[in-house]
Amino acid sequence: MVEILVVLSIISLLLATLMPAVQKVREAAARLSCQSNLRQIGLATQNYESAHGRLPPAFQHRTVATALP
Asked: Of 29, 53, 55, 67, which has the fewest beta carbons less than 10 angstroms from its beta carbon?
């Protein structure tokens, strides 16, 4: 019974030391994903400008016509 407790404590210590490393890897993956998304937005903007001769509109204001009584 004591051996099982020792093994479990060793495993828990190993997991506790590995968790910060796993978190750093997750953060790096999220950062790379964000950089890739920003790069794709930049390329899409450049392609739009190349095809249309202007940058894409950032905001389009649409007014809704209301009927007067």
From this structure: 67
